[in-house]
Design a protein that fits this description.
Layout: H1 2-22, H2 28-43, H3 47-60, H4 65-77, H5 81-94, H6 99-111, H7 115-128, H8 133-145, H9 149-162, H10 167-177, E1 181-192, E2 195-206, E3 209-223, E4 226-236, E5 244-255, E6 258-269, E7 272-286, E8 289-299, E9 305-317, E10 321-335, E11 342-357, E12 362-373, E13 379-388
Antiparallel strand pairs: 1-2, 2-3, 3-4, 4-5, 5-6, 6-7, 7-8, 8-9, 9-10, 10-11, 11-12, 12-13
Length: 390
Amino acid sequence: MKIKKIFLFASIILFIIAVNKSLNADSPLLKEHVLKTINELKEKEKFEQAIKIAEEYLFSNPSDYEIEIQLARLYSWTKNYAGAISIFDKYLAQNPDNFDLMLFKAQVLSWTGEYARAEILYERIIAAVPDYSDAYWGLADLYLYAENYKNAIGLLKRLEKEGEKNQKVLRKLNEGYDDWHSGYISLAFQPIKRFEVVLSGNMIERFNKQDQSIGIGFYYDILSGVNLHANASVSFNADILPVQRYDVDTVISLLKGTSLLGGFDYLGFDRGPVWVLSGGLEQYLSSYFYITYRLFYGKDFDNVSSHTHLGKIDFLKARRYHFTLGFAGGSEAYKAESSVETINIDCITCFLNIKYWLKYYLGASLNGSYTYRKNSYDTCSIGGGILFRF
């Protein structure tokens, strides 16, 4: 009996020693587990937790190249750019021709606005490895961030020759040109009092693609002082426009001349849904003049949120003219390509819309806008149309 107990005790001790060895910091099994955990946390965008795990592992394994590079990427995505660059520099000092690390460092430098240093690194990579495609894309993005459109377009035109149908090239070329065309037609009629139906068609051409959509909407005075507007549209061969779009807006009169505004907009794209909530106030100062403020908050398919403040002034005279002067400011957030970093661009837009009736049955419209996008390319648009009344 004693021999059995001794044998059992010895077996337990040996098992504990074996487990200890398998969990030793140098164990490939532990490293594999750490890498798997870091990648899982990255996918969930839990970067701080991933950083903590990587740092704890590196405390016992300070020269583990793979984990330390993972840590550097995590630092860059949490805007600890200095920490990321110091790790890249450490290994580039050991191997100056590690072009993967050079690319990572160039990306981080471009995110910090050090465009000249990043450009030198991209050019070194391209000179040494002419078929390193990510270096070309990184350099093109850098030129666009730096608003150096001449160089961006020159580089992208070169890439376009190598792949004429490469949509990524065409999209980035359009970022440089920002050239697009669109058309819109609508027909409104009032079958019964306090109820108006609007049929619409839309076409937009951009990135060498053309989308068309049709829609139906209505305006309805539900109660005295409560108005509802709803609209639904579908697109064909959608590449730019949403495949489906639904929006509902309400106007509720509170006091004399004051109204509460609310709205919900749902846009269904191939990559996923985008939704926007809005709320605001409208104040009539006279029968010819009113001001409006609205706040928009939206979330896209990358689970990235954006917001915009809009203010506008309207001057109108029934059946004669309607002038709108507006201003909008906010953020345009999205996921960067080939990265989990969220890019957040501050935007300011000014716009003007004019509708003028030349006769009872004939009118014209003119609209224009200009958008300043900080650290990115600006956009402007102008359009016009003819109005008929039957």
